[in-house]
Amino acid sequence: MKMSVLASGSTGNSTFIESTEGSVLVDVGLSCKKTDETLHQIGKSLQDVDAIFITHEHVDHIKGLKVIAKKYDIPIYANEKTWQAIERKDIIVNPEKKFLFNPMEEKDILGMNIQSFNVSHDAIDPQFYTFSKENKKISLITDTGYVSDTMKGIIKESDIFVFESNHDVDMLRMGRYPWNTKQRILSDVGHVSNEDAAHAMKDVITDSTKRIYLGHLSLDNNIKELARMSVEQILNQYDIDTHNGVMICDTDKAVPTELYQV
Ligand SMILES: [Zn+2]
Ligand SMILES: [Zn+2]
After folding, report:
1. What is the pLDDT of residue 25?
2. In angstroms, what is the span from residue 13 Cα to ligand 2's centroid?
3. Using CA of residue 3, residue 148, residue 109, residue 80, what is the dihedral sign?
């Protein structure tokens, strides 16, 4: 499998995963045009995409959905409640392109075994996905207030993780956000901080883990270097080698990560 995080953060999320039998996107949080332009930067296009998996109905995950669903003949998967929430936003997808992928389900699609799992976030029924093929595994987990043991059990032993590292707690506390927004982000249904992410990572990293992409960084309450340093420092305390072992990688809100193969 090959993977590129096309965009990550509150302005739009989308990840491209390719297997020998086809390619998928997880979320389409960029506009249709921007998604296609970003795919071109890694030598791909929306024409190459064979399926789309939606995690939840927040706009930073579905901004491009309406136009992509209209212009392209791509099957789109989401769980039942999420489809209902999407339709309440007046995004109507042709029933022929609509597919159900409910939480804690496993499906074999395009030669990959794909598993969904719930996260703890203030959307109707948010879920993320793992993609497995021939002993290789890619797990995506962002938009969650905490990482439970159930979630850890599902994502563990991945070769690649895209892991939420949303904010630095001090930056958030001292920043300009109103009190209730701060409370929402810090709550169990908000987003995971750099520190909490690292503590969860240490429970799921194994010898097969090669890369961890830090995802969904807050524009206001985090800095790439700070996120990476905070995570590395904590992992190093647990004797996890982030220099010759697991590589901690950045993602960006607009620039795709290189297409990386596992
Ligand atoms: Zn969200
Ligand atoms: Zn989000």
Report:
1. 98
2. 7
3. negative
CA of 60, nearest ligand number: 2
Six token digits for residue 218: 């807050």
Q: Contact 218/10 with Cβ under 8 angstroms? A: yes
Domains of the chain (ranges; CATH) run 2-261 (3.60.15.10)
On whether the CB atoms of residues 170 and 186 are closer than 8 A, the answer is no
Query: Which tokens in the block code for residue 213?
Result: 């992409």
Cβ proximity of 30 and 256 under 8 Å: no
Say which ligand is closest to the CA of 126. 1
Instruction: Enumerate residue ranges in the chain where pLDDT < 50.
Output: none
Residue 53 has phi, psi (to 5 degrees) of -115, 125
Q: How many CA atoms lie within 13 A of 82 on its CB side?
A: 29
- The CB density around residue 33, as the number of other CB atoms within 10 Å, is 12
> Which ligand is closest to the CA of 122, given by its number?
1
- DSSP readout, 2-38? EEEEEE-STT--EEEEEETTEEEEE---S-HHHHHHH
Residue count of the chain: 262
Element (H, E) at 224: helix 224-237
Q: Measured in angstroms, how far is the CA atom of residue 89 from the centroid of ligand 2?
A: 16
Angle between helical axes of 194-204 and 224-237 (0-180°, round to 10): 40
Is residue 216 within 8 Å of 164, Cβ to Cβ? yes
At 143 the pLDDT is 97
| Structure confidence at residue 261 (pLDDT) | 97
